[in-house]
Amino acid sequence: MSKISMEMMRYIQKDTVDFIPNYDGEENEPVVLPSRIPNLLINGAVGIAVGMATNIPPHNLSETIQAIFAVMDDPDITVPQLMEVIKGPDFPTGGIILGRKGIRQAFETGRGSIMIRSKYRVEELTNGKKQIIFYEIPYQVNKANLITKMASLIRDKAIQGVTYLNDESNREGIRIVMELKKDAQEEVILNQLFRLTPLQTSFGINMLALENGRPKQLPLKDIIHDYIDHQVDVVVRKTQFELKKAQDRAHILEGLRIAMDHIDEVIHMIRSSKKDEAGLSQDLCDAFGLSMIQAKAILAMQLRRLSGLERDKIENEYQQLLLTIEDLKDILANHDRVLKIIRDDLTEIDQKYGDERRTEISDASVDMEDEDLIPVEDVIITLTESGYIKRQLVDTYRAQNRGGRGIKSLTLNEEDSIDTMISMSTHDYLLLFTDKGRVYRLKGYNVPSGSRTSKGIPIVNLMTLEKGEKVNVLVAVPKDDESETLLFVTKNGIVKRTSVSEFENINRNGKIAISLKPDDELRFVKLTTGQDEVIISGSNGKAVRFNEDQVRIMGRSASGVLGFNCDGSEVVGAALSSEGDTVLVVSENGYGKRSKFEDYRLTSRGKKGVSTINITEKTGKLMCMRAVTGKEDAMIVASDGIMIRVALENVGIYGRNTQGVRLINLNGDAKVTRMTLVDHEEPEVESEENTEE
Asked: Is the pTM of this model over 0.70?
């Protein structure tokens, strides 16, 4: 039994509380314990009865004692002022209480609800992974059941990104270890755990207790006032007990003093008496004016007390008792002295048993969506030819001067290359279109992040693709985007417009976005305003310009109409007038240029178009075409994984029928495969031949 528990029993022998017969009447038991400690608050209480229940949380001993002092000093103290002293419940298992609203409500009314969250820390491992260690769990949560629940959620993939879960708890404390995948968002996983498991749980406070024998819901101040009143009663009854005991002893000592003053007469009377003890006692009472109690004390006095030394002891004890009696009477007559005794007792207890608060109180929000925990960042999404996808921060790639060698964007197999890339925000929606005309939807942050040279993960891990199906178009749809339609462009020059709203509810299995002929495939998808002009270019270096309203809005399953006569080539670019006033083209051998948008005469859809670049053996076929403002950076990707970031302000404006300038130096047989646009940044200071591996 803890030493502090004995403080509940202290002074019980001094008539501080009433006793009543127990259940069978054979013994007596106390109605209530004198309890020097505020047990109801520091230990709490849980119980049920007919039509009622109580659930009082434990509180910190030191804080509770200071709160009692605060009420003593100011009986009209407010709850907010009191909460500066006693912060809230303090659970032996620690944890974090989220918010103070529930605490204040419980303190003011006796009823409220608080949210308790586990404490954890995130540690970096040597292999680049992270692990979450939970070292404090909420009050009254069963650890074994908790781990079982966590394991089932991980097994059923309700929580993804966890590779390892183990209970490493020992005699030193709780330790639940969870190891994460490299690309996992620990904030999201934590939020899911708190939402789906008892790692975060609510505690309903109902401070119901017996007050004068009747159940009553008690606010904090009422409990403290009741405790103070109880302690006043205990101190008064203890003082009365000690006063009576002191007075009784002083009365006996007065008789002994009389006997010592008449010791010869007393001895003679005792020796000559032929009466029993009762008769002799009565004779002493009659002879010296003693009470029967005093007479019996004289008869019980030992001969050694007749010495002078013992006489002095009796006298000193008597005088000390007189002082004690006066002091005890003063306590009973002075309420402030009673309160001081209570204060001194509690101060002693605080010094002996007080400790630091274990449960932290946080102002953090209780309910948060997973998305709220993910920072808004500009990222690059890359997708390889073999179907590996990853997310990287845009600033991973520093801008270089035109014609530079570029840096390694990822490690690829010889047969693999970067197929598609796009710039977007982590909180934008990402529409993923396949060559078969199906569409899937993800949030940007749902794409796993990877290092600059990592390959990424198979895209089939994120969605259910059909056999032979390949994602080849990525479209970012910002939250606040006002675009009304999506423009589809196929390899064979077929175009179609469909309302954006038809792509809002898409599950993991995807939906049909456009119906294609067997020899055709989807190449480009553009967000349009309804008032855009469209330029479509082919690998033969030709391009056609027409108004988008020449293509009527169709349903998702429609096939579309002819937008560009490929004339034996295939579509390699599609641009909108709203995207920029110049057209950027890049050939497969790394040559490129900008031309003015108006240099392309406006015609009707379905034409063969005009030249957009002079195709030669030196330039190779046209590979990419985009509308730009000239304030962007172009990120150009080669088949060997090399990527370069070029500021378009350094790319000159030339006529449509020119070949342009070299934008990237390619290695060996490498060819340009993709290009995307990102916000401009100032280039690093380096030579044009500098290469970073």
From this structure: no
